Amino acid sequence: MPIDVAADVIANHPLSADYNVLALAAPAIAAATAPGQFVMIKANGLVEGAGCPGSHDPLLRRPFSVFEILRSADGTHIGISILSKRIGVSTRLLYDARPGQRLACLGPLGRPFTAVEPPAVAWMVAGGVGLAPFATLAESLHARGVRTTLFYGARSAAELFYLDFFRALDVELVLTTEDGSAGEHGRVIAPLDRRLAARPPGAPVMIYACGPEGMLAATARIALRYGRPCQVSVERIMGCGLGGCYSCVIAMRSDDGGAHHVRSCLAGPVLPADQIIWG
Ligand SMILES: Cc1cc2nc3c(=O)[nH]c(=O)nc-3n(C[C@H](O)[C@H](O)[C@H](O)COP(=O)(O)OP(=O)(O)OC[C@H]3O[C@@H](n4cnc5c(N)ncnc54)[C@H](O)[C@@H]3O)c2cc1C
Ligand code: FES
Question: How far is the CA of 244 from the centre of ligand 1 (A)?
Answer without folding.
Answer: 18
